[in-house]
């Protein structure tokens, strides 16, 4: 707080030094040495210094910062799809990063205004160990809070697991849309049915049990709390060679294939952390002249985007969505989130 009030940067090295010798004499009404003796401050500084001196910690001090607005949008205002690959990390490092990422998303989320439409989507494949029913790892609390509150800010959570029995029931009861595939054990099925009953209240357990038990390959049950009955659907055949986890050397090569090899600048000239955090809604990218339809709808002239001024590049398109030719009839249906 002292560094922030003086407008100074504070790195981890300076923080350790100030832990030993703080730049103040009192904490509230008590003298500093009475509230936090010098011996205890030295022990805390030594623990922090051990983290700083660890060889494995050096890599966590490099790379792009967790600037959520910069991860959601490119410099020209287009939506960005950010993928975090953690299969090459150890268990403790995975937990550290997932907790850090969820906390950063939650902090950014609470600076946004409420929204009835989807602003951002957090997707995590295989949440085993991050929200267990009995243990309390660091990632559990931010994940539970986001499952309960994120929808009010327009942030969606899409979580996948192979074993529902390993997921806390409080998180399952706050899930609105369920896509259920074939389950191998009766324990997983019963735990899933318990979660569905908690989420919906009036679901027919016997009907759901029969549907889930009869599922085959690539067949799923879609259960939405806003719908009257579950839906059974089948996905098309998807070819996947299942190459397995990537190595450290393959990740840069994969980024180069999609043109994502360069590091994203933290100082964006178009979208800064403050301006994006202050924006209350998300708008799609503009339609350029090269892809404009032959007969576009009239543009909106009294709207100023909170993210980027698109008047110079919008052409004759719409400021809020891709323009549709006037000869095409449009129908709009209500969507429940």
Structure notes:
By secondary structure, the chain is of the alpha+beta class. Among the domains are: about 1-55, no CATH class; about 65-155 and about 260-280, no CATH class; about 285-335, no CATH class. It is about 30% helix and about 10% strand. The protein contains 12 helices and 7 strands. The protein has helices at about 1-5, 10-20, 30-35, 40-55, 70, 90-110, 140-150, 170, 185-200, 205-215, 250-255, 275-280; strands spanning about 25, 30, 120-125, 155-160, 175-180, 220-225, 230-235. The chain has a 3-stranded antiparallel sheet with strand order 5-6-7, with no helix packed on it. It has a two-stranded antiparallel ribbon with strand order 1-2. The protein has a two-stranded parallel sheet with strand order 3-4. β6 and β7 form a beta hairpin. α2 runs antiparallel to α4 (about 40-55), α6 packs parallel to α7 and α9 packs antiparallel against α10. About 15% of the residues are buried. Mean pLDDT is about 80; it is low at about 265-320.
Short synopsis of the structure:
With 337 residues, this protein is of the alpha+beta class. 32% of the residues lie in helices and 9% in strands.
How far is it from the N-terminal to the C-terminal residue, by CA? 40 Å
Number of helices: 12
Q: Please tally the β strands and state the result.
A: 7
Widest sheet: strand ordering: 5-6-7
Q: How is the main sheet built?
A: 3 strands, antiparallel
| N-to-C SSE string, H for helix and E for strand | HHEEHHHHEHEHEHHEEHH
Given helix and strand content, the structural type is alpha+beta
Q: Pick out the low-confidence regions.
A: 264-319
Shape: globular
Rg to the nearest angstrom? 25 Å
Look at the structure and give the mean pLDDT.
79
Q: Helical residue percent?
A: 25-40%
- Strand coverage percent: 5-15%
